[in-house]
Amino acid sequence: MSSAEQRSVAGALGSFVASLAAVSSGGFVFFNDTPDTVNHRNLPLGAVAMVLVIAGVVVAARTATARLWLGGALGLLDVFLIWQSTTNNAFRFVWGSGEGEMFMFQVVLGLTALVLIATGLQPSRQTEPDTEVATELKPGAGRWLVRAAGYLCGTVIIVFVATWAGIDYYTPTICDDCLDGLKGLYWGMAAVLACLVAVVVIELVLRSRRRQERTEGIRA
User: Fold this and answer.
1) How far apart are CA 26 and CA 19, in angstroms?
2) Of 108, 115, 190, 125, whose CA–CA distance to 150 is shortest?
3) Under 8 Å between Cβ of 30 and 92
4) How crowded is residue 205: how many other Cβ atoms within 10 Å of its Cβ?
5) Is the CA virtual torsion 130, 134, 136, 138 positive or negative?
6) How would you write the pLDDT of the chain (220 residues) with one tens digit per residue?
7) Whose CA is closest to 107, among 93, 90, 91, 119?
8) Fewer CB atoms inside 10 A, N or C side of the chain?
C-alpha cells in the first residue's frame, strides 16, 4: 500500500469513526427503551455526522484501497444494525421521528457499502491504471460488479419513488381509516418488474456489443 493509499484509508476511516461518535453523542441511537427520545436529539451533531460521512466517501473515492476499507466498514455497520434491530426490541434509530427510518438507513448504508466495494474491486482502468486490481481485469469482461451495484441502486430509487407516488395517488381518494392506500405498493411491485426487464435488455445489448468487438478484433 502506497503512502497516498494509506492517507486515503486513514482519512476515510477517520471520518467514519468521527461520524459514529457524532451520531452517538447526538442522541440518535438507543439500545434500551428511553422515553421522549425525539426531544433528546441534537440536530446540529446529526448534520455534522452527515458531513463527515460524505467527506469520508469523497476521500475514499480517490483510491480503490480506500473504497474497499470504507465499504467494508459501512457493510459491517449495516450488519450490526440489522442484527440489533432484529434481536433487540428496544434498539432505536431516531432521526425525524417517522416510521421506517431504521429500514431506510440500513438500505442506504448497504447500497453505499456495495458501491464502494464494487468500485474498489473493479476500479476503472482510466482512473487507476496502475492498481493491481485493475490489471487483473480481463479485456472485454466489463465491470460486472459495478454494473450490478448500479442496477440495484437504480432499482431501489425507482421502486421507492413509484411506491410513494402510488400512495400519494390513492390516499386523497379514500377514507382515512382504510387500507386502500397500500395499493400504492402495487406501483412499487410493477417498478421492480420493469427494472428487471430493463436490466436484462441492457445486459443483452452489452453482451452483443462485446461479442461484436471480439469478432472485429479477431478479424483485425
Assistant:
1) 10
2) 115
3) yes
4) 10
5) negative
6) 677 788 888 999 999 999 988 888 877 777 766 555 555 677 788 888 889 989 999 999 888 999 999 999 999 999 998 888 888 877 777 665 555 677 888 899 999 999 999 998 888 765 554 444 444 444 445 688 899 999 999 999 999 898 888 877 776 665 555 555 567 788 888 999 999 999 999 989 988 888 887 776 665 5
7) 93
8) C
Task: Give the distance from CA 202 to its chain's centroid.
Answer: 21
Residue with cell 479485456: 139
In the numeric block, which cell numbers belong to residue 40?
433528546
Ordered DSSP codes for the chain: --HHHHHHHHHHHHHHHHHHHHHHHTT-EESS--TT-GGG--HHHHHHHHHHHHHHHHHHTT-HHHHHHHHHHHHHHHHHHHHHHHH-TT-EE-SSS-TTHHHHHHHHHHHHHHHHHHHHHS--TTT-TTSHHHHTSPTTT--HHHHHHHHHHHHHHHHHHHHHHHHHHHGGGS-TT-SGGGGHHHHHHHHHHHHHHHHHHHHHHHHHHHHHHHHHHHH-
Residue 29 backbone dihedrals phi, psi, to 5 degrees: -125, 135
